[in-house]
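Hey all, quick one. A colleague (J.T.) asked me to put the iron/sulfur cluster job into the tracker so the inputs and the structure tokens live in one place instead of scattered across chat threads. No bug as far as I know, just bookkeeping. Sequence used:
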Amino acid sequence: MSPLDRFCDTELSRKLMGRVAALADEVAERLGRPAVFIEVCGTHTVAISRLGLRSLLAGRVELRSGPGCPVCVTDHQEIDMMVNLARLPGVTVGTFGDMLRVPGSRSSLERERAGGADVRIFYSPLDAVAFAEANPEREVVFLGIGFETTAPVVASTLMRARLQGVKNFSIFSAHKLIPPAIRAVLSDPELKLDGLILPGHVSAITGRRAFDFIVKEYGLPSVISGFEPMDILIALHELLLQLHRGEARVANKYTRVVREEGNLDARKRIAECFEEVDVPWRGLGVIPESGLSLRETFRDFDARFKLNIEPAPPTPLYPPGCACKEILRGKLLPTECRLFSNVCTPVHPVGPCMVSSEGACAAYYRFERFS
Ligand code: SF4
């Protein structure tokens, strides 16, 4: 058995599940209600749904989703600007696949593509650079969407493009940062929460220390977790144990990947290329210093300046009846949206949480519709 196999071992998982359930019973009895946790990351949302943990722990633990699906939190305003880019003659817009179908206020990239715009899916920004080199007559704009995990890859790509002298490549940066979004979620006085499962991939870049504010400012237990079944059970056990003991700390239970200070090389690359700016998040509004904009030294690769894209007007519109806003803040479950699975499905999504494969509504639809 390889060390990693232990994290998927069925027998070990069953034993630990028994301990989690017993501890959850004790905590629920003490609280007089189920403990409420948020899993911040969309990948955790999918893993928890796939494992059926919500129904296994029903009545003892309530697991809600948070703002950690990058496609879901990309604001209408940003999508409107991406649509404007796609409408420019001679421009190819490159993006990750999930982004195509997310609606802005007037259109989506998929609709623009159907209307003749050159919108392409690239699996890596490096592929977009290669496409730009092969098509020097076009300006290739790659949409930088994602969190601390995607930004270093885009930063490295920019450095490579500059080194190779690629002049017809640029980035539309809509990168976002997770710690400010967590702060925005936790600042909501209406949110009743007992702990957080923190994103493993993001923490690999930021380091554990980046989340110390959760304890200092909000006094909440939290745990950094991996994504295998045992990882998630260990994380739940840790949160319940902290609650049971009346403690609050940021535990790192993903030590095979996450360090105290994070990935210093990746953080350096981010700092070289980007600066922190206030940006709008779908469902959360404008959050101070929660986005990454290209530094002035990279302005020749910044699509906003290179192609004179004006900021689109703010559009606080949400599709009527769509509860994505509340779901991304951990206040509602997808099944509490009245459109879930009758009007809104992955084939006919109404909101972004049903579009993205990491969206909470898509995960519930796929794995928990009948539970
Ligand atoms: Fe929005 Fe559809 Fe989710 Fe309801 S089920 S919150 S309409 S994405």
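Adding what we noticed when we looked at it: The longest helix spans residues 10-31. Residues 322-324, 327, 334, 337, 339-340, 344, 350-351, 353-354, 361 surround iron/sulfur cluster (CB under 6 Å).
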